[in-house]
Amino acid sequence: MDLQAFNSDPKVTAAIEKAVEETLIQIGEDPQREGLKKTPHRVGKSLQFLTKPEAILRSALFEEDYRQMVVVKDIDFYSLCEHHMLPFFGKVHVAYIPNGRITGLSKIARVVDVYARRLQVQERLTTQIKDCIQNTLNPLGVMVVIEAEHLCMQMRGVQKQHAMTVTSDFTGVFNQAKTREEFMKLIKG
Hints:
Layout: H1 10-26, H2 39-50, E1 61-63, E2 70-81, E3 87-97, E4 101-103, H3 105-116, E5 119-120, H4 122-137, E6 141-150, H5 151-154, E7 165-170, H6 177-188
Parallel strand pairs: 2-5
Antiparallel strand pairs: 1-4, 2-3, 3-6, 6-7
Helix pairs in contact: 1-2, 3-4
C-alpha cells in the first residue's frame, strides 16, 4: 500500500498538523513559507501510514509436512527510531522450520512491515517479528537477524557514517549452534 492510497484519520491528521506547525515555529521556521505550507499535512498522513497498527494476517496458513528450514532473506525495511524519530533501515532475514504448517512467503515480509512501521527500537523489532511467527505458526523454531543503519547515529550524536547494528533472536531448534550456523551461511551466501 502506498501513501497516496492510504486513508488516514482526519482527526488524527489535524492533531499532528497542529503539532508539526508548532514544531516548525519552535525551530525557527515559517510554516507559511512556500516549501513548508503543506508539510504539516504531509507529515500527519505520513506518520499514520508509517506507524499503522495492522493485525497480522492469518489468511495464508497451509497444512504441509515440510520440516526443513524456510528462509526469507534481504527483506528491506524502514522504521523510525522512537528515541529521536529519525529513520533506521536495512535488511531483515527470517528463517523458520515448519511443524505441520507453512505460510505464504509474502506474509513474512508483511510481518516485518507491520512492526517496522511503528516507532521502534531495533531490538524490539527483532523480537516482535520472531514472536509473531512463533505464535502464529508454532514452528519447530524461528530465527530473525536484522542488519540496520540508524540515522540517529549518522546524522547527529556520534556521526558514524558506516556503523551497522546487527540484532538476532531465535527460538526452538535454533538454540542449537549447528542450526544457527546453517541459517547464517544461507543469509551470507
